[in-house]
Amino acid sequence: MKNTKNVLITGGLGFVGVHAIEKWNSEKWNIYVIDNMSSNAIHPEEINNFDNVKIYDSSILSLEKSKFNNLDLIVHLASPVGPVGVLRHSGKIGSMILNDLEWCVEVAKKNKCPLIFISTSEIYGFRSTKTYLKEEDDKVLHGEFTVRNEYSAGKILAEIMLTNIGRVDKDFKFQIIRPFNVTGRYQLPEGGFVLPRFAIQALKEEDISVYLDGEQKRAFTWVKDIVNGIYLTSIAGKDDWNEIWNIGNEQNEKSIKYMAEKIKDLTNSKSNIVFTDPKVLHGDLFAEAPEKIPNSEKIKSRLGWSPTKNADEVISEVVDFYRQDDLYKKF
């Protein structure tokens, strides 16, 4: 009889992935990781020394499905990420998302195990009025076709694909996760992630570059709260599978300008806060994100999830991470 469960985590050396490894390791699972190192995060050295972690340095599609047997769960995190990170995959993101998901579905079916697909809050699209977004809300595609559109449309189609597979195959179990503005330790500035970028700029006494007028709102959620939510969906009761779950902390809603000012204060920085057009920095393919504030009542009421860090605590963690051992000097 098998005593230890086995999980496959794709994108396991990415920012969220390393926290997922830590979570499933704490739950005493054997962990298989696929990561092509394209956007791997800074990660704790001890991950390399976990006896129960096997890492495949590879793209998903380069691996034979037959390598993976006796799996109890697949957590599919692998994906291009970040407002800047997606730009280099222009014209390819849609097919990347769908092809990788199809591979994961086939492996899940072969192993008769559930699949957790990490989608994105980007699928809610652009709205003219502030809305606390629920899972069933309409998805709004911006009139201008951008790389960001391609990313969100690919994720929407993946969600539809998974849902329909589950309707046809009654034995197939899945969960769809829509995380909102994840941040915390190990997140890199590459890809356009705002809190690491602000922290590094402030610590280096460089201008803190805020896109547009800085009034756009975000609700940053601590990465370990996100991962805990993902884990809760993996142990849900039988009536809570084949569902879509928002995971985000609406109480953390702050403007980008507020975050820049907070980081400048925390670092006692002499940096100037400057407002800039992101297209000047990143080119015409760049599109700034709309306001995305979650309604996470579903996962709170049905699975008992609750966020634990407020906005200022999350911001402080990122600053402390880059200040520790003068890490910011490496960027």
Would you mind describing this structure in some detail?
- The mean pLDDT is 91.
- Strand 4, helix 2 and strand 5 form a beta-alpha-beta unit.
- The strands form five sheets. The chain has a seven-stranded parallel β-sheet, with helices on both faces. The protein has a two-stranded parallel ribbon with strand order 6-15.
- It is an alpha/beta fold.
- It has nine helices and 15 strands.
- The longest helix is centred in the middle third of the chain and has 22 residues, at 147-168.
- The protein has helices spanning 15-26, 93-111, 147-168, 194-203, 223-234, 256-266, 278-282, 297-303, 311-323, and strands at residues 6-10, 30-35, 53-57, 73-76, 115-118, 132-133, 174-179, 182-183, 208-211, 217-219, 221-222, 243-247, 253-255, 273-276, 293-294.
- The chain starts with 5 loop residues before the first strand and ends in an 8-residue tail after the last helix.
- 34% of the residues lie in helices and 17% in strands.
- The protein has a domain at 6-187 and 223-251 and 294-308: 3-Layer(aba) Sandwich (Rossmann fold).
